[in-house]
Amino acid sequence: MHAWRASLLRFDPHxxxxxxxxxxxxxxxxxxxxxxxxxAGDHATLAPRHAHVPCTHLPGRILAxxxxxxxxxxxxxxxxxxxxxxxLPWLERYTFPAEARFADPAHAAExxxxxxxxxxxxxxxxxxxxxxxxxxxxxALMAEAQxxxxxxxxxxxxxDRHSPDGVRDETEQSLIxxxxxxxxxxxxxxxxxxxxxxxxxxSTPAQLRGAGEIxxxxxxxxxxxxxxxxxxxxxxxxxxxxxSRSYLAVxxxxxxxxxxxxxxxxxxxxxxxxxxxxxxxxxxxVCPTSNLFLGSGFFDFAGAARxxxxxxxxxDVGGGTSFSPFATMRAAYxxxxxxxxxxxxxxxxxxxxxxxxAGAARALDLEGVVGNLQPGCEADFVVLDPExxxxxxxxxxxxxxxxxxxxxxxxxxxxxxxxxxxISEAK
Length: 427
Ligand code: GUN
Ligand code: ZN
Hints:
The chain has helices spanning 43-46, 87-100, 105-121, 135-148, 171-185, 205-217, 231-240, 247-253, 271-280, 288-293, 301-306, 325-338, 349-355, 358-363, 390-397, 402-412; strands spanning 2-11, 17-29, 35-42, 55-65, 67-73, 124-130, 151-155, 157-158, 191-197, 222-227, 261-265, 283-286, 310-313, 381-384, 418-422. It is α/β, with parallel strands linked by helices. Strand 2 and strand 3 (35-42) form a beta hairpin.
């Protein structure tokens, strides 16, 4: 057992932030050997019961749940900041050539190691990640994540058409490979597998159908894809699948919408799409830095409140421009401003933070497991320094409320705020 004394941020079951200015976080092993939160709350209240537990005192620091990145591409680490007119030219010009290099396992291993270190350096302890179409790219990422005890869910891209040589796979073999990778990695330590059709335009109906059949056989496996990101992409998907009611409905028509299905972007939806997300229990990964960078559009937060469906925040590196959850929360705030329909704050800072931690865990069907620091949660957390830069120090010292403190961190923060990332580990 080990205890940490500092300010402590967590969330109640309604998503309300709970903050102890002088808090205590007690970490120990549960019956199965996992390092979990045993107690969390006010120091003065909890300390007498834990007087025997060794304690690290970090005055001035904030303990907060490790961040969850709901959608990120590790093979795109090297294409961040590659400008293009829009999504489809960007894929063709930069992304597919970069991904073709992952046929080389040594290249995949090198990038995977860098990527995992970068996640941790930015305070991300759980991620749902795309690999490439090469099965060895999954092996490389899983191995590096396992070494660092990251909670990582990832999968091999399925893309058997409209993709260049070097990344295009073959229908039957791609499904065999997916099944084998599930057997190899799903549920191993903190790893999970996600069935990963890249997006409807690059899969044949047969590949999507096969992916849906695998999903039906493995209900605890995740599903991830892209949808309704860009107008040209949507027109293309509609032309390829004219029988489906909408682009999103293509996935439903192939058995790919259910709990643990996470769709990136979900920008250009109508209310029937939102209702489909809701009824199937699917979730959206909202990727604001990517959407602004590629000019894709603005996620409709007001629409997602009107016809509620699960959603959380994601970097979408390398369409996204930063690994930093602070950059993502900041961009989400700006995007929320764009679509604002009511007076007041579109997205309060506590809500932005929840969308990148406990709310993202709910979207992954991992509520109570990660993304929070309530008793029973896996003990992944960040030690934040609200005085990491001169301006942050000056601004946060003047914060008169939790909302003001979190807003200052979201607006001014970056990796320098993350003093330490602690991964489910009991001392
Ligand atoms: N749609 C299909 N593939 C991709 C990708 O790699 N990035 C983004 N942003 N959208 C996609
Ligand atoms: Zn993506």
